[in-house]
């Protein structure tokens, strides 16, 4: 079975028309690959177009203010990607004279660029013969060859990478990689794969053994914990208290409101205790209404969020050491990056 040729033929007839497939510019390919990590193409496409429009070159990206980048990234999640991209763009300017490294090994030196992303840039931009192995590739190879190794294990990842590198086209490594990933994305899908029209219908070992739904194997499950977030929208004279979240935080660099995070057992804290925990010296009587809980899912957390509105008659003392907030009006709030759960709430209730 010539898997490479069959895949490439399938790809030429079935591929989606996506803008990053019409360029060999490593900057644009890098942008698309980072944006599409943990993100569906349909969701990532407008972000890609927005970033290319705002930052046409890697130099533009490197010189941009990180707050601007985070604001444009708002809604994509995994904000460390945006922060890492800013560092990587500066590396390209400072260490590589404004030109992306042209090989897999050196691409790995860029912040936030791992094995898959380095392989994607190296093959798509420079046609280096190195396989891209993502979730779609795991699924296709595990099914076609009935590979039983756990894809979350180091051994499994090594096996799949070796298989993909053995199969990769000698003359069209870039097209082969695109084809294998595209095949997994739109044909050999996690649920209801299109086996009847599959070019490997006669040779797919998992289909022959009727275990397609058992491939790929992933034994380790992500433990999801519940967290209860109590946000305080503290308002005075049309301005709200906000703070920039610090390094080491999943939302580092983004702005949000005073916040109390509780465990499941503490979810019914009284308004008084919530206000006391903020250490802002606000009285319970100042709360004038709170929202219904909003559920928000992250990869490892299940968030239940409430918003408490507080209207103050007098300004708080912003000079104390513990006071890390500042007053921001609506225009300022709209211009900075925020967790999408805040942005959605503000659009509905404040803007």
From TrEMBL:
Cofactor: [4Fe-4S] cluster
GO term, biological process aspect, one: mismatch repair
EC annotation from Swiss-Prot or TrEMBL: 3.2.2.31
Origin superkingdom: Bacteria
Annotated InterPro entries: A/G_AdeGlyc_MutY, DNA_glycosylase, HhH-GPD_domain, HhH_base_excis_C, HhH_motif, MIG/MutY, MutY_C, NUDIX_hydrolase-like_dom_sf
Keyword ATP-binding: no
Catalytic activity: Hydrolyzes free adenine bases from 7,8-dihydro-8-oxoguanine:adenine mismatched double-stranded DNA, leaving an apurinic site
Keyword DNA damage: yes
Enzyme class: hydrolase
GO molecular function: 4 iron, 4 sulfur cluster binding; 8-oxo-7,8-dihydroguanine DNA N-glycosylase activity; adenine/guanine mispair binding; metal ion binding; oxidized purine DNA binding; purine-specific mismatch base pair DNA N-glycosylase activity
Annotated Gene3D superfamilies: Helix-hairpin-Helix base-excision DNA repair enzymes (C-terminal), Hypothetical protein, domain 2, Nucleoside Triphosphate Pyrophosphohydrolase
Keywords: 4Fe-4S, DNA damage, DNA repair, Glycosidase, Hydrolase, Iron, Iron-sulfur, Metal-binding
Domain HhH-GPD: 35-186
Cofactor remark from the record: Binds 1 [4Fe-4S] cluster.
Membership in a protein family: Belongs to the Nth/MutY family.
NCBIfam families in alphabetical order: mutY
Function: Adenine glycosylase active on G-A mispairs. MutY also corrects error-prone DNA synthesis past GO lesions which are due to the oxidatively damaged form of guanine: 7,8-dihydro-8-oxoguanine (8-oxo-dGTP).
Full protein name: Adenine DNA glycosylase
